[in-house]
Amino acid sequence: MLLLGCANAAEPTASGELSSSDFTGTDRCIQCHAIIHSQWDGTMHSNAYTDPFYLKEFETASQDTDGLIDSFCSRCHTPIGVVSGEIPPADGSRLSGIAKDGVQCDFCHTVSGSNGTGNAPFIVTPGDTKWGPFNDSRSAYHDSEYLDLHTKSEFCGMCHEVSHPVNGLLIDDTYPVWKNSTYAQEGVTCQDCHMTPGITEFEANPGRSGSGAPKRDHISLHSTVGGNAFVTGILGADDVKKMAIERLEKAATLDMSSPETAHTGEDVTVEVSITNSGAGHNIPTGVSEIRQIWLEVRVTDAGGREIYNAGRTDNKGGIISALKIYNNVLGDDQGDPTLSFWLADRVLSDNRIGPKETVSEEHTFFMPENTVYPVTVDAILKYRSAPQELIDHLFGEGVHEVPVIDMAEISNVIYDPGSPPGSRTESRSSPGFTIFIAVALLLIIYVLKNNKKGG
């Protein structure tokens, strides 16, 4: 604790203060920490610099700002490259191999303190001592020291809170939103969700941190997955992509209110509620001006005719008739919307969904004549890492397709008002109810057969 207090009083490690040769490459770490290395490999942390989308955006931002953001952005995407003075130039021509490893083992475990959160105020002390979350670690290869910071969200908040370097506009508010949430009040940290098998809550991961290390009740997972199934897919990290999709599927829940019956020739209104039930930050978060969450609400009759659809995508990836796109909209110095956060100096709008917050949409459609009952209303919460149009602009049309992830879905059924109530059997029972009935019937048959044998 004394070490942490002294480190917090120091200045963040400056650009060019160290050499990349001061750091240890992951090829050495893997010799004792193979499991942890395999978890990290392929993640957005391991690809923080080589992420092709980041590199395209970084190139544009550097040109737009005459290099102003070169070290600013790189401090989180290639921290070793910055503290060793290998960036600038922005083209990465001076970057060493170890700097291209992004947020790698020896960087995190030579963080010896910070000057708070936001804009990467980390202090790194490369050398024989590695800092971590255990106060009794022993290693034959290096010295080990406990650092309280490694157990706290403030460690993550160094990079997951970003303010514009010139005008101070808060660009990434992941950490501040968590800090003001009930999760923080309850003591739930970033690590509890992002470094355990539990995804949306802490779940112990028994194991060892390295070969020869003692077995512990919990070893933090180093996959540290968020919701990026786009870049991980491009880079062929299919396991990480799968985990990102699973995380998105557990972030939100839906509820729907609709009439049980409706006449043809009348307007029908359904209400769909979205609850951020699993994320300790806004959804979406990060560079959320390019993230897209929206509802697709689809109404079809029993004959397969589509009566209503809001939120579908066209063949170019455009979102058609969605009532809302849940993200924030940034504005430039002229007050015009911009997807280039480095040109932004204001927030024009923000309808992201906060931790444990619920928002609702009302969808109204006309029930046409000749409707074949029953009518099914499907609501699907969609997520996309970036607009397809933006990716086409950066990489060329047809080069990369941004996957649309179904985060949650719910269905209700609307019946013919003339149908007897007892015949309205299709519907609102919970998923898996039919399977439950089938299993119960099989169990009854089994018991009856056994009773006969016993008699």
UniProtKB/TrEMBL annotation:
Residues 29-110 form the Cytochrome c-552/4 domain. The keyword Magnesium does not apply. InterPro entries: Cyt_c-552/4, Multihaem_cyt_sf. The chain crosses the membrane at residues 430-448. Keywords: Membrane, Transmembrane, Transmembrane helix. The keyword Transmembrane helix applies. It comes from the Archaea. SUPFAM superfamilies: Multiheme cytochromes. This is Cytochrome c family protein.
